[in-house]
Amino acid sequence: MKDLKSSVLLLMIFCFLGICLKAQMPNSISKTNKVYGLSKFWQEVNYNFVYLNKIDRNKWESDYKKLIEEVQETENDYQYYRLLQRFCASLKDGHTNVNFPDTIQKNLYNTYFGEYRLFLTNIENKAIVTRTNLSKKDEIPIGTEIIKVNGMNTKDYLEQEVIPYISSSTNYILMDWAVSRMLQAPKGTSFDITFKLPNGKIKELKLTHTETMEKEVYPEFENWQLFEFKWVDKDIAYISLNSFGDPKIDTLFIEKLPELYKAKKLIIDLRKNGGGSTSIGRDILQYLTKDTLLYGSKNQSRLHIPSFKAWGMWTTEKDTIGNQWATQEFLSYHDNFFHDFPYEADTIKLKAKRLIVPTAILIGHNTASAAEDFLIYTENQKHMIKIGKRTFGSTGQPMLFELPGGGSARVCTKKDTYPNGKEFVGYGVLPDIEVNKSFEDYLKNRDPVLQKAIKYLKKK
Question: From the DSSP assignment, how many helices (H) and strands (E) are in the chain?
Fold first, then answer.
């Protein structure tokens, strides 16, 4: 009898959570607008997406037709936007995304589980706990691995429930984000989690997304600053350029120049730099090179002239031989005709003193967009070397537009490459010396990338 009462109580709790979950997520978008939003995104991709020639067009069209029915059957705005995100993720581009409306986003939790708070990191393709709320640091120690979610092996859970909804140009970023967001869900959602502790013991918990009142975390959050400076050795200066999204960083850098000129060697850390404006990074770089010309990325965008596309329906590849007009027809019909933006090097007219010393640039998976453009500029700087992991592998010029219900989307319209046409979107900018942070490094709070840079520069 006691077991029966417990089962009934548990069922009532689950039903209550389900009702709460449904109540939290609005259902404000009509069926007509759901189809319109889907079609709007599909249309903008077809017309403006710079990498349209890289996708399976038959599958893209087939998925769109299926979704016309599926989006109309969604029970709320959250389910609708999840379908749009899955559709978008099939394009495999980090600068092409579908974003939730604020009404949904405010009810999505990732790290909060009431009395528990968990932060996850992809380490050696495992979902590892790298931060908790302070009171749980002994119960769930740093280095604990999540090995099952809702009875599924973590790998299977990620592949089925998380990865299909994430837009990324590279597989390693896809895995990083999948792990860090693997438990993101609406408030009230419950998960059965199986942990493997660092000592090998297995621990199981049912965790439900509710607000965590405890503010203290372990380890503490880093005090993020736009620009950081310190000496890591008597001759080696360290600067961290953490964003090119705020022009103030140029001023902060210039203010430190009198002290930086004392350095015989330099470390530039771009591992937290997610991008911003390419010109902001270039204005810093001009102080660190003797060159008067800097060669940045080369750009392309699709060129769409409807008549050429219409004529191209009857144009064969054989027709293009020695015929520029037919070539444009053929390429236009196959969404493969591009406009090359005029390319020229940036001229540097700096009058100030420059700092030309052996320089190590630290890079990693979070080095993205304009920070990658910074690296393209440094490609031929013989006194500079890149150390760490390959970069984010995505940049470009997104076109932004609104979607029904308050959400938004963006579509990448510009392709960036090295000056010689070599691609880094989808691959990342590669380090000259690869260094990966291991599981042991996390446990012992070591920074092997910085250590390698110091060791390298000391030899110089």
Answer: 15, 24
